[in-house]
Specification:
By secondary structure, this protein is α/β, with parallel strands linked by helices. The chain folds into two domains: 210 residues, 3-Layer(aba) Sandwich (Rossmann fold); 38 residues, no CATH class. Helix content is 37%, strand content 21%. It is globular. About 2% of the residues have low confidence.
């Protein structure tokens, strides 16, 4: 298996330009409020909401500018990565969730946000301080992915408890996980988290997990516990909810495309 540092370095260089072209604008427009006090402006990026154009400044500069608020200048991006055994089911699945994490980190950095990494299983495995330097950003992520994993399965409640302690203000929280949790419905817990923060669930699926049937359930053996279980044949993500988006990551399409579509999805 490729070392985390080398794989993260490869992905950061490969994804920098696509993120700048396709993801930076939707990231800002989807999760940064437009009803806060005006504070600043920045050049328009593809995917931005045109309704927030600063018309007078755009006319003076002869190029489109968008209004920014205080909340937008101070947003923290927390990227939580599930490191349970099911996330390492196949090389394709590993590539998917690593690419999603790197792309979201790039989008946050390019928008001037501070980034904080956290890894979890049935406990918090590790976390970083809020980062702005690009070199430290990727070195910190690779270091967290190199740490030995103590947990044997994944739970969302310890992550929610940690977020409650470290993030008093509204933040953008990206949960990179297959959502195979040993507890209550993942959708219910994520919806509760979205009451306080902007939430994006990036859900990787390996080819083996993309099997689907029109109805009924699929018999499965859980990687994390070894127990026999069943799963719904329909693996489509739930509909978007206020401040909660789902991106289903599949091997047959670029992760940036799935993330972009999730960020641009209309709120219900």
């Amino acid at each position: 298996m490729e070392r985390p540092l080398s794989s993260i370095e490869r992905l950061r260089w490969r994804l920098q330009r696509p993120v700048l072209s396709w993801l930076a604008g939707p990231y800002r427009s989807a999760f940064k409020g437009n009803g806060v006090e005006f504070a600043d402006a920045r050049p328009y990026q593809p995917g931005d909401d045109w309704r927030r154009l600063h018309w007078s400044l755009s006319a003076r500069k002869n190029q489109p500018y968008l209004r920014l608020g205080y909340e937008e200048r101070e947003l923290t991006c927390i990227i939580a990565i599930d490191r349970s055994p099911s996330m390492y089911l196949s090389p394709q699945k590993i590539e998917l969730w690593q690419a999603a994490a790197v792309a979201l980190g790039w989008a946050a950095y390019l928008n001037g946000d501070r980034v904080r990494w956290v890894t979890f299983t049935d406990r918090i495995e590790g976390f970083s301080p809020r980062l702005r330097s690009p070199f430290v950003l990727w070195e910190s992520l690779a270091g967290l992915l190199q740490q030995p994993v103590r947990g044997h399965h994944s739970r969302l409640r310890p992550l929610l408890a940690w977020l409650e302690k470290v993030s008093r203000r509204r933040a953008f929280v990206a949960v990179v996980s297959d959502l195979f949790f040993q507890e209550d419905s993942a959708e219910t817990l994520l919806a509760a988290l979205a009451m306080r923060h902007f939430v994006l669930a990036a859900v990787p699926r390996s080819p083996e997990e993309n099997l689907s049937i029109p109805w009924g359930y699929l018999p499965l053996k859980e990687v994390e516990t070894g127990q026999l279980t069943t799963m719904r044949g329909d693996l489509r993500p739930p509909a978007p909810q206020p401040r909660l988006r789902y991106a289903l990551l599949k091997p047959d399409r670029p992760p940036i495309q799935s993330l972009r579509e999730a960020l641009l999805a209309p709120l219900q």
